[in-house]
Amino acid sequence: xxxxxxxxxxxxxxxxxxxxxxxxxxxxxxxxxxxxxxxxxxxxxxxxxxxxxxxxxxxxxxxxxxxxxxxxxxxxxxxxxxxxxxxxxxxxxxxxxxxxxxxxxxxxxxxxxxxxxxxxxxxxxxxxxxxxxxxxxxxxxxxxxxxxxxxxxxxxxxxxxxxxxxxxxxxxxxxxxxxxxxxxxxxxxx
Length: 190
What we know:
Layout: H1 8-26, H2 30-34, H3 46-54, H4 62-83, H5 85-106, H6 116-126, H7 138-157, H8 164-189
Helix pairs in contact: 1-4, 3-5, 4-5, 4-6, 5-8, 6-7, 6-8, 7-8
């Protein structure tokens, strides 16, 4: 019996998040602010563009990391098997860029870090099972209403340190990708 690195994108992403969390603890948040958080800075700052992608790797402490890693490691391998490593990597990068840009535009004084946007993209992407051309899966509708509805409610009525925007944007990215990828597959099947 041997251990298999079965989902290279998901496992590598989770390991990068783990390493960034170790660095966060060791640097008392300094490295997370510098490299693994996104916030509005000068467009001349080269790290601004790096952080648009790396903020999904950073986490503020172990509880934050464990919450996201659990969902990533639960859903990610199934998605990577279904859609392929390249497609899942693109989903992560698109989610990172979308949440980073929207955060900089709409919330200029908020520092954003964590993989929860990616997790929400995974959740919505996973809800597209048994997709047929012309059909919208009921699982997708229910997951959308429950998860995105909850985030909208929390964003309006609950004051906490959680980025509901990243969750919503990640969910929208996952929904669009899930629909587009499965529509493409349905067309190929005829």
